Amino acid sequence: MSYRCTISVCNLIALVILASCSSSDGASAKKSVDEIFEAGKKSFDDGNYLDAQAQFDVIKLQYPASQYADDAQYYTAEINFERGEFIMAAFNYNQVRRSYPSSEYVRESMFKAAQCYEKIALPADRDQENTRKAIQAYTDFQSLFVRDSLSLEAAKHIRDLRDRLAERFWLVADHYLLTLSRKATLIQLDAIIDEYPDTKWLEPALVKKIELLVELKKTDDARAAIATYRRLIKQPQQQTVVDAIERGL
Description:
By secondary structure, the chain is mainly alpha-helical. The chain has eleven helices and no strands. The chain has a domain at 29-116: Alpha Horseshoe (Serine Threonine Protein Phosphatase 5, Tetratricopeptide repeat), CATH 1.25.40. α3 (69-82) runs antiparallel to α4.
C-alpha cells in the first residue's frame, strides 16, 4: 500500500470517528436534559429547593425548547410558593401561561397565581391593589375554565375578596360618621350599594343610609331607600329596625 493510500485510509477512519462522536454527543445532550429534570424534580420532592432551582434554571437557560421547559418554569413557581415568595411565585406562574399557553400546567398556574395575590392582599383598612389583582386573576381563570371544578372555588374566593373591598368603603363611611360628615358618609354607603350589592355589607349599608336620611329629614329619600332595602335584601337580618323606622316616617 502506498503512503498516499495509507493517509486516505487514516483520514477515512478519522471521519468515521468524528461522525460517531457527533452522534454520541447528540444522544448525550438529550439524555442530559432528562437527567437534569429528574434530578431537579427529585430535589423538589425532597424539599431541597436550592438544588432544585439550580437544575430548573439550567433547563430554562440551556434547553428553552426542550419538552421540560414548561415543567421547569412551573416548578420554579412552585418553589417560590413553598418558600412563601408570593410575588415571585405569581410572576412565574403567569409566565407559564404567557410562554407555554398549551402547557398542561396552565390551569393550575392560573389558579395559583390568583392564590398568590390573595395571600399578599392587605386587610380592608389598607391598600387593596393585590385584592383587586386576585379578583381579576380568579375571574380570568373562570373565563378560561368555565366548567372546571375549581371555578366554583374561584367564585367563593371572589365573593370573599369583594367583601373586603366593600368593607373598606364601610370603614371610610364609619370614619366620616364619627366626624359628623353625613354627606360624605352617604357617598361611601352608596358606593357599597351600587358597586358591591353581592356582599355581606349591603344590608348594613342600606340600614345606615336609611337612618342618616331620616336624621337629615329627607323623608322621601328615606322611603326610597327602604323600598330598595325590601327589594334587594332577600334574607334580612335587620328588618325589625327598618320596620320601626318606616312606622316613624
